Amino acid sequence: MGFYGGEPLIEQKKIFGCIEYIEKNYHEYLPKIQFAMTTNGSLLNQSIINKLIKYNFSILVSLDGPKDIHDRYRRFKNGEGSFDIVMKNLDLIRSIDKEYYETKVGYSIVIAPPFELERIYEFFSTERLKNNRVILMSGVEDHNTGFLDRFDMYAESKQLRSQELRLIKQYKKLLAKCEDSPFLENMFFRSLMDIHKRIVRPIPKALYPNGICLPGIQKTFVDTKGNFHMCEKVGLGFSIGNVHSGFNSESIWKIVNEYLGYTKECNDCWCLRLCKLCYASVIQGPEFSKEKRRLECERRKKGLETLLQRYVQLSEEFPDLFNKEYHEDTLTLEVFKFIDSWHSGHTADSDRRMQS
Ligand code: SF4
Ligand code: SF4
Fold first, then answer.
1. Which has fewest Cβ within 10 Å: 6, 77, 124, 246?
2. Closest ligand 2 atom number to CA of residue 269
């Protein structure tokens, strides 16, 4: 159960009220629920931290790098940057429970121009932060925004590429010494492991669009009015039911079928097996957008080319690097089987299974 905002801790009373309600009325389920929250970290205090620890929350704190980089874009209404307060609050968590801090607190880093990737790496390698393993990196979306127009993005992208190349050299040096860097591992290794673990069986006669979930199964995003949506990445434009009447299978299949209309070219696309694009790549506000899909496909293919080159280089230099435990993505396989059975005409059966 994850809590998102804006900034979710603005409604901290509601969040913990909700958990206390579960604790009181559905006590037996509580140990099975994993709680998570993405927060900007500015509202954390001792009492909130104690509750987060009590319910074993995983928290993802938005932190973009050292003070000058973080404060460029993460500011309070009065214009002041939030870096000092976020770091003070992270230190507070560490002083209350170091193990919790290192195992349950991660960082969400938005990499925005002007790019200074190496300084961000150095910052996350400092004593204060280097042991936290979960790091999520994302860029600024370039669709429907004028934000990037203020930069020379050609020069910036060139800069970013050379910074990446220098960091990958650094990563190789660490690998050669059997040393570890959660930051570099997240940056270079995680996505390559996805390539390594790809499903390699022959492509079946009908292959459903690679990255998609069956809406409602993997995640359900519940808004404050009790309406169900696919997930936080898709937003509020496509309701799939509500807390009173449950999932609406008609709306779900409408979304799946409409999405299928945008996947015709996937049949001839070289990155079919490795592509993870889903509804979120087509949905723009309350509707599907062809243009957004086109841009996302281009970006995905470009990104995959780089990743494949990196995968081959690293596999050659470090043959054991990817020989870690292999887990087949059983959930995706289940979803494929399920959609297959529905399309073969077992509508009533599929509907029943979906409701359950
Ligand atoms: S990101 Fe895509 S695949 Fe994942 S839950 Fe959301 S809609 Fe489903
Ligand atoms: S990049 Fe686009 S066309 Fe290629 S498989 Fe992914 S969604 Fe399909």
1. 77
2. 4
pTM: 0.83
CA atoms within 13 A on the CB side of 29: 11
Note the pLDDT tens digit of each residue in 137-166.
998 877 778 899 999 999 999 999 999 999
pLDDT of residue 198: 82
The pair of structure tokens assigned to 355 is 């409701």
Sign of CA dihedral 263, 293, 197, 102: negative
**For 41-189, where are the alpha helices, taking DSSP H only?**
46-54, 67-73, 83-96, 98-104, 117-124, 153-176, 182-184
* 90-133 tens-digit pLDDT: 999 999 999 999 999 999 999 999 999 999 999 999 998 988 88
Domains and CATH numbers, the chain: 2-151 (3.20.20.70), 221-288+325-355 (no CATH)
| HSE-CB for 149 with a 13 A CA cutoff | 5
Q: Ligand 1 centre from 279 Cα, in Å? A: 7
CA-to-CA distance for 289 and 293, rounded, in angstroms? 6
Separation of CA 348 and ligand 1 centre (Å): 25
Please tell me the total number of residues recorded for the chain in this structure.
356
Q: What is the CA radius of gyration of the chain?
A: 22
Ligand 1 atom at minimum distance from 219 CA: 5
Rounded alpha-carbon distances, angstroms, from residue 175 to 163, 172, 193, 307, 323? 18, 5, 15, 18, 14
Burial 40-72 (b: 16+ CB within 10 A, else e): bbbebeeebbebbbebebbbbbbbbbbeebbbe
By most ligand atoms within 8 Å of CB, the mutation choice from 198, 268, 275 for ligand 2 is 275
Nearest-atom number in ligand 2 for the CA of 301 is 1
For ligand 1, atom 2, name the residue with the nearest CA.
278
